[in-house]
Specification:
The chain is of the alpha+beta class and 289 residues long. It has two domains: 166 residues, 2,3-Dihydroxybiphenyl 1,2-Dioxygenase, domain 1 (Roll), CATH 3.10.180.10; 118 residues, 2,3-Dihydroxybiphenyl 1,2-Dioxygenase, domain 1. Helix content is 24%, strand content 37%. The chain contains eight helices and 16 strands. 43% of the residues are buried.
């Protein structure tokens, strides 16, 4: 009985989110987007064109790979090709338009979400070359249908070794991990419920107000009302409601990060410093030790 109970618990855990996989910042201006994050001290992966199955897409990304999680920088580079819905999202606004939670069991999570009443047609494949002549990175996705927060999804990496390479994980700004995503919502209880439903995990109160979704990898998603978000991120405003407004990046040495970013208009925030959204392609970046 004990062994069966352990196996059952392990199965349930695999059929929930495993952590905060990445936040995606999106733009129609690829050069400006990628240049902004290089200026902020991130090492970026090579330009990678995306495809859906055998269908080429008109989108490409570069990523800042961290020891835990990563930042995706996604842009439309060929308007003549399908863009997998990115253009429609950018019509609303440019900035942090993707919130991806990790998963280990695509089939189990699909079954769980369907039991919860979500009409998900199936597992969506996505692939891209890591670099010219290099391996192909492959993913499985379970997007949350019609999420007003943006492209909110569960993601499973089929080839994690292809993108988490040591040569791309050292950053001049000292970034080491993706610690949190901050969602601002005019109806935080509704946004929080959607994220809880997608992840299969329980919410808790956020200390500042609103809700938090703790994730198994130690990261979290904070879902805050506008007045709380602007209080903890002075000068930052959400481009729309609801939206991903900021991400929190852990660093090895906060003083070294401050020195590296000395030319930026940094804002002091509790526990760290913030790069305003205007300097980071529409998404506030909080660096903390």
């Amino acid at each position: 009985m004990a062994a069966a109970a352990i196996r059952g618990r392990a199965s349930r855990l695999m059929s929930t989110s495993s952590g905060l996989d990445h936040v995606g910042v999106c733009s129609r201006d690829a050069a400006a987007l990628w240049g902004a994050y290089e200026r902020l001290g991130f090492t970026l992966t090579p330009i990678a064109r995306q495809s859906r199955g055998d269908q080429p897409l008109g989108t490409a990304n570069r990523c800042a790979m961290l020891q835990r999680g990563y930042i995706e920088l996604l842009a439309v580079v060929d308007p003549a090709l399908p863009d997998n819905g990115l253009g429609a999202m950018l019509d609303r606004f440019e900035g942090a338009r993707i919130l991806a939670l990790g998963m280990e069991d695509s089939e189990g999570n699909l079954a769980r979400l369907r039991r919860a009443g979500l009409e998900i047609p199936g597992i969506s494949p996505l692939s891209r070359p890591v670099e010219a002549g290099g391996p192909i990175a492959r993913f499985e996705r379970l997007p949350l249908p019609e999420a007003p927060e943006g492209r909110v999804q569960l993601v499973r990496h089929l080839t994690p070794e292809a993108i988490w390479q040591e040569r791309w994980m050292g950053h001049a700004n000292g970034a080491t991990e993706l610690r949190a995503a901050i969602v601002v919502s005019g109806h935080p209880a509704e946004s929080a419920a959607r994220l809880s439903r997608l992840s299969g995990l329980a919410l808790e109160p956020d200390p500042a107000g609103g809700f938090a979704l703790p994730l198994p990898d130690g990261a979290r998603v904070r879902i805050l009302p506008p007045e709380v978000a602007t209080a903890i991120l002075p000068g930052a405003e959400a481009p729309a409601l609801p939206a991903v407004m900021a991400m929190v990046i852990g660093v090895a040495d906060l003083d070294a990060t401050r020195r590296h970013l000395a030319a930026e208009p940094l804002v002091e925030v509790p526990g760290g410093v913030m790069v305003p959204p205007a300097r980071a392609a529409g998404c506030a970046l909080v660096f903390e030790a």
